[in-house]
From TrEMBL, chain A:
The chain crosses the membrane at residues 35-53, 65-83, 103-126, 133-152, 164-191, 203-230. Belongs to the CbiM family. The keyword Repeat does not apply. This is Cobalt transport protein CbiM. Gene3D superfamilies: 1.10.1760.20. Pathway: Cofactor biosynthesis; adenosylcobalamin biosynthesis. One of its GO terms (molecular function) is cobalt ion transmembrane transporter activity. It is found in: Cell inner membrane; Cell membrane. It comes from Neomoorella thermoacetica (Clostridium thermoaceticum). It is a multi-pass membrane protein. GO terms for biological process: cobalamin biosynthetic process. Part of the energy-coupling factor (ECF) transporter complex CbiMNOQ involved in cobalt import.
TrEMBL record, chain B:
Its main location: membrane. The lineage of its organism: Bacteria, Bacillati, Bacillota, Clostridia, Neomoorellales. PANTHER family: COBALT TRANSPORT PROTEIN CBIN (PTHR38662). It comes from Neomoorella thermoacetica. The keyword Chloroplast does not apply. Pathway: Cofactor biosynthesis; adenosylcobalamin biosynthesis. This is Cobalt transport protein CbiN. It is found in: Cell membrane. Forms an energy-coupling factor (ECF) transporter complex composed of an ATP-binding protein (A component, CbiO), a transmembrane protein (T component, CbiQ) and 2 possible substrate-capture proteins (S components, CbiM and CbiN) of unknown stoichimetry.
Amino acid sequence: MIRRTTWLTLYLLLAMAVLARPAFAMHIAEGFLPFNWAAFWFIVVLPFWIWGLRSLQHTVKSNPGLKMLLGLAGAYAFVLSALKIPSVTGSCSHPTGVGLGAVLFGPAAMSILGGIVLIFQALLLAHGGLSTLGANTFSMAVVGPFVAYGLYRLVRKLKGSMPLAVFLAASLGDLMTYVTTSLQLALAFPAQAGGVVASMLKFMGIFAVTQLPLAISEGFLTVIVFNLLAAYNKNELEELSILPEKTAAEGSRSRQ
Amino acid sequence: MSTSQKNFLLLLIVMLLAAVPFLIHRKAEFAGADDRAAEAITQIRPDYKPWLKPVWEPPSGEVETFLFASQAAIGSGIVCYFLGYSKGKKQREPK
């Protein structure tokens, strides 16, 4: 049955890739932020990239066995951000897929992995852009992962179940990415009547509402992958202290 | 309910979430949300012109679809390889 689920997952991912419609989507398009704002978001993102590089180096050095799992986290973001899924508003958007990696490796690592996905899409797909890379990295690879990681830790601390924690982390991290995009656009383009707030509501109506069902989808997909990881990769999850270690279950819990 | 049954159910919900919009909006264009954002920008600031063009644009919708499909295929290839590898490893572990 588990094998069948894995095949189904593969089938579904392929089916959705085929369904995805050729349209520009999400992220702020090339040149659509005034120069000063584009530069501002690069400056904001820079420390997170440095932090992320260090965090990745640390993970790989102290646990070389986790490299493959790191690859999985990156690949997952890669797949999900390629899937432009129709939404209830009658337009399309795509999930971000950064929640899984944020829960596994911490939020800083995703600023790099998410950034790589964004560079790929900017260069090869004319999706997003190099000038808006800073702003898009901030929303998708900084805010999303930090919200996801924070929520995951919070729910676990409140003794919520693992699937619930992962679901809320992935779906709200996804949603907050697009709330951030709306805010970035509103700051750069305040409405003549109503200023930033009026613009924010306008962009939120476009991005955040479209994103709502997709965020739920991303939450469920991430729970599925997490269930599979918990079944087959206990050791790795224990190394990342996501699952308590068998021998010192109590010890590793109380140390956190 | 076993984990695999739960996963199956979750997959079903995800598929429904992607299918329902087609039933609700039979005549919608299903364009990207960022195209609509670009429209909103020109409404707020009619004089705004994007100051930079993408370095390279896929020459047609078909090429773009191909690139997006490749991105999804490469990604899901890696994801599924890892899951299959982990499952095989787990099965060979001494119990």
